[in-house]
């Protein structure tokens, strides 16, 4: 292909993607609305895309920028002089490393476990799966926050880490970090605060005079914090920070191996080769915006959040799950309103809102992560129209036969044949039997919503596996 053909193909491919600017994609991306900063960050990513963070002696520029990013964050998290940090590829890697480091710091524990609230991010379950760590899940209270007493009671001699959220993703509320950290410290256990989505919002919210539950290193017992640069620091994907109170706490996350004929491997993260692009992009973004700029951006995002939360409470048929502590808003629908159809209707109007399936007796909800560039008035106008349209359409029916089929499927043995049967029963198969998703996702989400979580997981794994078969069509 010629360069022009390649550029044209890239443009054509991107036409089917959600927009990353404009503040209307309210999950996955975060938009400051600063085109000049975005352009500068892309320049930085391109300039350092070929640099490799594997060896800081070979690319000292990346080490310098990484240290600058950690220093910038120190003020936000009330870090002591001893605080250290690592740039990772994203929040999930930061959380994985927090669990891995806690596990490896306790080689005396034969059956290590972590204690988490049921609202903890799925990354910690992924960490438990990857690293052979049991995940002890504690129910939350009626306010959707972690139950500190219940978490304290769950700590035992196998516990290597206790996790609190600031805020939790699903409901947007901050856990009682001081009580949780105190309980962990009393048992000599590490306490990690997952502030991946709140770490660049909550500090400026406090400066704006808003009430913020203590969650930083100012809280005794907090040993590590994760905070994402590619969320509300508005840096390019993918960059996050894992911060530790002191170097001794970080050291177990490092991996070194000299027992082979090649170079001695030394890694600070799960990756070996690390492109310098995301590090440089994050460095350029934070330098361009600065603390004063983030103060302004946070004010805009929180003002939009307040307006949207208030607007939802005034809409007949929708209810807030919880008053938002940050920029995350979740809402449930009344019985005569289908929340999945509301999400589809918002998509028809150029807004992406994220559907969340029902869980343990809790109804499904719609979820939004509001950015500084989000126009709250335009969002609420579209939401009002979407609710009215969804109410007129009524709930999405699920064929009783399909529901019965779901109950007969074993998640452990779900293969191609069972998945094809499910596609056909749900009307999702194309003319040749291939995957043929409809333009509207409400029927798919309604179908998944009647399945238990284990089957949802199996179906979605089969779905992803089917999508990632480049030669299935013979082209």
UniProtKB/TrEMBL annotation:
Gene Ontology MF terms in the entry: transaminase activity
The protein's matches in Pfam families, at most eight in alphabetical order, are given as: Pyridoxal_deC (PF00282)
Q: Which UniProt keywords apply?
A: Aminotransferase, Lyase, Pyridoxal phosphate, Transferase
**Source organism of the structure:** Nocardioides ginsengisoli
Superkingdom: Bacteria
Q: Can you name this protein?
A: Aspartate aminotransferase family protein
Q: Which InterPro entries match?
A: GrpII_AminoAcid_Decarb (IPR050477), PyrdxlP-dep_de-COase (IPR002129), PyrdxlP-dep_Trfase (IPR015424), PyrdxlP-dep_Trfase_major (IPR015421), PyrdxlP-dep_Trfase_small (IPR015422)
Q: Does the keyword Lyase apply?
A: yes
Family membership noted in the UniProt record: Belongs to the group II decarboxylase family. Sphingosine-1-phosphate lyase subfamily.
The coenzyme or cofactor needed here is: pyridoxal 5'-phosphate
């Amino acid at each position: 292909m010629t360069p022009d053909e390649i550029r044209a193909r890239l443009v054509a491919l991107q036409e089917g993607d959600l927009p990353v600017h404009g503040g209307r994609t309210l999950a996955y991306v975060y938009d400051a609305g600063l085109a000049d900063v975005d352009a500068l960050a892309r320049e930085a990513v391109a300039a350092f895309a070929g640099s490799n963070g594997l060896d800081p002696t070979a690319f000292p520029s990346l080490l310098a920028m990484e240290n600058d990013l950690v220093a910038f964050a120190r003020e936000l998290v009330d870090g002591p002089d001893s605080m250290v940090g690592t740039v990772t590829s994203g929040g999930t890697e930061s959380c994985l490393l927090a669990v891995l480091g806690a596990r490896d710091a306790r080689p005396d524990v034969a059956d290590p476990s972590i204690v988490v609230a049921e609202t903890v991010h799925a990354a910690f379950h992924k960490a438990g799966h990857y690293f052979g760590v049991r995940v002890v899940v504690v129910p939350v209270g009626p306010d959707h926050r972690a139950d500190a007493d219940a978490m304290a009671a769950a700590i035992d001699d196998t516990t290597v880490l206790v996790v609190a959220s600031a805020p939790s993703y699903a409901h947007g509320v901050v856990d009682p970090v001081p009580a949780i950290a105190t309980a962990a410290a009393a048992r000599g256990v590490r306490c990690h605060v997952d502030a991946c989505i709140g770490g660049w919002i909550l500090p400026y919210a406090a400066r704006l005079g808003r009430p913020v539950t203590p969650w930083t290193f100012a809280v005794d017992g907090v040993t590590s914090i994760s905070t994402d640069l590619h969320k509300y620091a508005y840096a390019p994907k993918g960059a996050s920070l894992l911060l530790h109170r002191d170097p001794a706490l970080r050291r177990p996350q490092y991996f070194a191996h000299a027992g082979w004929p090649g170079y001695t491997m030394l890694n600070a993260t799960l990756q070996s080769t690390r492109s310098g692009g995301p590090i440089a992009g994050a460095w350029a973004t934070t330098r361009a915006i600065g603390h004063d700029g983030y103060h302004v951006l946070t004010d805009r995002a929180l003002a939009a959040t307040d307006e949207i939360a208030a607007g939802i409470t005034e809409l007949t048929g929708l209810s807030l799950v919880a008053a938002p502590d940050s920029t995350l808003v979740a809402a449930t629908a009344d019985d005569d309103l289908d929340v999945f159809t509301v999400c589809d209707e918002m998509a028809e109007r150029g807004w992406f809102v994220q559907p969340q399936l029902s869980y343990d007796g809790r109804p499904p909800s719609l979820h939004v992560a509001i950015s500084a560039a989000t126009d709250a008035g335009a969002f609420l106008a579209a939401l009002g129209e979407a609710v009215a349209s969804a109410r007129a359409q009524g709930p999405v029916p699920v064929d009783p036969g399909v529901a019965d089929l779901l109950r007969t499927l074993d998640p452990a043995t779900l293969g191609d044949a069972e998945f094809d049967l499910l596609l056909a029963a749900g009307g999702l198969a194309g003319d040749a039997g291939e995957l043929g998703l409809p333009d509207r996702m409400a029927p798919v989400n309604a179908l998944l919503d009647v399945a238990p979580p284990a089957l949802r997981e199996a179906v979605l794994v089969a779905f992803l596996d089917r999508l990632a078969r480049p030669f299935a069509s013979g082209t």
